Structure formats: C-alpha cells, structure tokens
C-alpha cells in the first residue's frame, strides 16, 4: 500500500501539485506553522475514504463469509444424533423387522400347507416311500436331444438314396420320423406311469392305452422299414408300396438296410420312452407335488437366510452412516477452528492496513510540504506533528458472532475429546441390537417350524 506506484496514484488523484501552486499563490504555506491546511486535511479524508474504506469493505466481506461458513456448522446436532443411535436403530429396524417377520410367517404357512398336501397325497394313494426322480431336467432334455439327433443322422443316411434332395432331403424325412417317435415315447411313458395308479379303473384304462400306443408305434417303425425298402424300387410310389406291403406282410422286409432302420428307430423309441418314464417317479403326480414341496422348503430356508442377511446389511448401513457422521464432525471442527483463525488473521491484517495507510498519508504530507518549499524557494514547512488518523472515527470491522464462536470452539473441543468414545458406543449399540434381532429371528424360525409341523420338537 505504501509502494511508490500507490503513492504516485494518490498524488495524481489528489492533484497535490496543483493544490500546492494554488496554496502558494494564496500565501497559505508558511514556515513553522502548526495548523494543517485544508489541502492537507483533504489528504487524510482521501486516504480514509479511498484506501481504508475499500480495505474495510473487502475485509468485512471476508469476515462475513467466514461467519456464514461457521454458522452452517452443526457439530452439536450431529454429536447428539450419534448419542441417540439407539433410537435411530429402532426407527430403522422397526419397519424392516415387521416385514421380515410377516414374510417368514407367510413362507412358513405356505410351506406347511404344501407339506400337508403331500402327506394327504401319500395317504390317499397309499405311498410310504419317498419320490424317486431325476433332479436335473436340463440333463434329461439333453439326453433326449442327443438321442433324437443320433437317430435322425443315422436314418438320414438310409433315406438319402431315394430323396431328390439327397442327404438333405433324407435328413428332413429322418427328422420327422424322430419327432413322431418322440411323441410316441412321451405318450407311452405317460400311459405306463398311469398304469401304476391305485385306482383299478385308471389302471385298466392306462394299460389298454399303453398297449394300443405300443402296437401303433411298432406298426409305425415297421412302416418306416417298408418305406425304406420301397425307396430302392421306385421313390415316386414308395409310400403306396410301403402301405401295401405293410398290410400284407408286416415282417416281410427283404432289405438289410431297411431292417437296420427298423432296429435304430425301435431302439430310439425304447430309449426315449424309458427316459421319459424314469425322469419322474413311477407313481403319477408324486414327482410334481414333491418338487413343489422342495421348492417351498428351499424358499423357506432362503427367506430365513435373507432375513438374517437383511439385518446384517442394515447393520452395515447404520455403521456406515455413523462413520460418515463421525467424519463430518471432524471435518466441520477443523473447518470451524480454521475459520476462527482466518477471522482473527483478517482482523489483524486490517490493523496492519491502517498502519500502512498512515504511512501513505505521511508520504503525501511530506510530498506536499517538499513541493511547497520548492515553490516558495525556502526550507520546508514544519509541523509539531504530522497528520494522524483519528482512530475512533475510522470504520471498525463488525466481528459479531466471533466471540460466541470462540466460546463454541471450547465446547466443540470437548465434543472432540468425547467423539471416539461416542463413536465406539454407537457402533457397539448397532452391533448389539442387530445381533439380538438376528437371534430373535432364529427363535422365530424355530417356533414357526414347531407350530407348523415343519420339524420335530
């Protein structure tokens, strides 16, 4: 502020040289005078208004900003919230616990009802054993797909000779034959399984249907062999010839390759029917209800595990919230303390700025005196003292709230001393409460299993 450029700017703004020339003509500057001239007083007004006034405005804005930042600090509230962790846990858990308990009770009722249906099914059908079936349906369908593809490929080779499209045409014909075989196998397995039912009428009906389907399947397989043999003679009339020879002589196939087709189709039919039969229990409907019971049992166990896991996740969320609160308190305390130090520094700098402004005023007065001495061609005018600011009239910085915040800082330091213990207590409350809830859920599961007969006492 007291640099040469600043001084030159003030001399230029005040037009000191013009003022001196005017004062000299008026005879104002005199030797050894003690009263300041109007021009000299204007220098003081200029420095107070233009220099100190602007500095004051800037410093006050900085103080106001620091005050606003400190006013946003909520260390007390956050610390109190951390102390009230128990109520926070209860509010967070209340709704979720009700949903978990309701879900477990519903799952237990559904599982119990289906188990009752299974027991009733066993009693009604005289079953005392567990259902025997294949767990993996994917493997089941994979084997079926493999059998169909192998049969199709083998038959395509034998049927390709009589097809206009060659191997491609034979492949499509063989694929159609495999699909028909697949349908026969599925119905054969179904009818055979129904024949194990305890209802006599159902047994007779299913057995009759099985024999009819078996006879039809045998006729179809033999017809495939006759068709293959007819292709050798005349591809265009192979279908009519095959039906004629099938009706006249069902086993009268003379071609070896045709018999191979019959054997391949028959083996594929038997394997497919066996696969469809053994994938489920031989008693009809037993596998379906057993699978549903197992699915509900799995859902019941998963519901219990999900409930425990849900409580664990809630505990982790609450612990993370507490940790974030603790970090926020520490960060706000550091910012609050630093803001107070910055405010004090701003106030101290303002007083230093006043001292610099006084130095600028002294330079301006000396320049006025020196220039007037040169104009009057005699020694410089002399004062008993230079111009001094009237400090009580200078603008003062508004430090409202700073003292209160200093007192708050003492309180916050006490909070920081207690923060580690408060944090440990809060985390301990969360862990203890969640562990007790998990234990209560485990007890609830045991009680529900006993009440609904899901396990023995």
Beta content comes to: under 5%
User: What oligomeric arrangement do these chains adopt?
Assistant: single chain
Total separate domains: 2
**H-E order:** HHHHHHHHHHHH
Cα-to-Cα separation, first versus last residue = 92 Å
- Report the strand count: 0
Structural class: mainly alpha
Query: Uncertain regions: pLDDT < 50 for 5+ in a row?
Result: none
Percent helix, as a range, is over 70%
| Largest sheet report | none
Mean pLDDT: 80
Tell me the radius of gyration: 52 Å
* Overall morphology: elongated
Treating each run of at least 4 consecutive H or I residues as one helix, how many helices?
A: 12
Keywords:
457 residues; mainly alpha; 2 domains; 12 helices; 0% strand
Characterize the structure shown.
With 457 residues, this protein is mainly α. It has two domains: 4-82 and 301-451, no CATH class; 134-279, no CATH class. The protein contains twelve helices and no strands. It is 80% helix and 0% strand. Helix 7 (167-194) runs antiparallel to helix 8. It has helices spanning 4-14, 16-25, 38-71, 75-83, 85-125, 137-159, 167-194, 200-233, 238-248, 256-278, 286-376, 402-451. The model has no long low-confidence stretch (mean pLDDT 80).
């Amino acid at each position: 502020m007291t640099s040469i450029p600043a001084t030159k700017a003030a001399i230029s703004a005040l037009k000191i040289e013009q003022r001196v020339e005017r004062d000299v003509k008026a005879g104002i500057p005199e030797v050894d005078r003690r009263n300041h001239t109007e021009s000299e007083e204007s220098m003081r007004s200029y420095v107070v208004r233009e220099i100190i006034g602007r500095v004051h405005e800037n410093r006050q804005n900085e103080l106001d900003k620091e005050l606003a930042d400190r006013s946003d600090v909520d260390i007390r509230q956050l610390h109190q919230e951390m102390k009230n962790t128990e109520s926070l846990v209860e509010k967070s858990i209340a709704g979720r616990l009700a949903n978990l308990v309701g879900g477990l009770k519903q799952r237990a009722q559904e599982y119990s009802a289906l188990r009752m249906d299974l027991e009733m099914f066993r009693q009604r059908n005289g079953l005392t054993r567990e259902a025997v079936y294949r767990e993996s349906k994917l493997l089941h369908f994979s084997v079926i797909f493999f059998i169909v593809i192998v049969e199709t490929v083998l038959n395509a080779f034998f049927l390709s000779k009589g097809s206009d499209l060659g191997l491609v045409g034979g492949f499509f014909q063989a694929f159609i034959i495999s699909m028909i075989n697949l349908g026969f196998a599925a119905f054969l397995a179904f009818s055979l399984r129904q024949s194990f039912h305890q209802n006599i009428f159902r047994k007779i009906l299913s057995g009759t249907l099985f024999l009819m389907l078996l006879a039809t399947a045998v006729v179809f397989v033999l017809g495939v062999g006759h068709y293959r043999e007819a292709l050798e003679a005349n591809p265009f009339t192979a279908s009519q010839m095959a039906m004629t020879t099938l009706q006249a002589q069902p086993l009268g196939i003379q071609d070896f390759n045709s018999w191979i087709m019959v054997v391949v189709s028959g083996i594929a039919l038997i394997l497919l029917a066996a696969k469809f039969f053994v994938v489920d229990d031989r008693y009809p409907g037993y596998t379906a209800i057993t699978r549903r019971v197992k699915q509900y049992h799995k859902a019941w166990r998963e519901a219990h595990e999900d409930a425990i896991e849900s409580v664990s996740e809630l505990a982790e969320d609450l612990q993370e919230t507490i940790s974030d609160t603790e970090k926020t308190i520490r960060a706000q305390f550091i910012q609050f303390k630093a803001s107070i130090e910055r405010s004090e520094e701003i106030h101290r700098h303002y007083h230093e700025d006043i001292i610099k402004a006084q130095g600028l005023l002294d330079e301006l007065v000396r320049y006025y005196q020196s220039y007037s001495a040169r104009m009057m061609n005699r020694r410089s005018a002399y004062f008993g003292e230079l111009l001094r600011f009237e400090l009580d009239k200078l603008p003062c910085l508004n430090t409202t709230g700073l003292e209160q915040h200093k007192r708050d800082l003492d309180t916050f330091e006490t909070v920081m001393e207690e923060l580690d213990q408060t944090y440990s207590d809060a985390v301990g409350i969360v862990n203890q409460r969640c562990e007790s809830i998990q234990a209560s859920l485990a007890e609830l599961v045991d009680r529900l299993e006993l009440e609904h007969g899901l396990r023995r006492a």
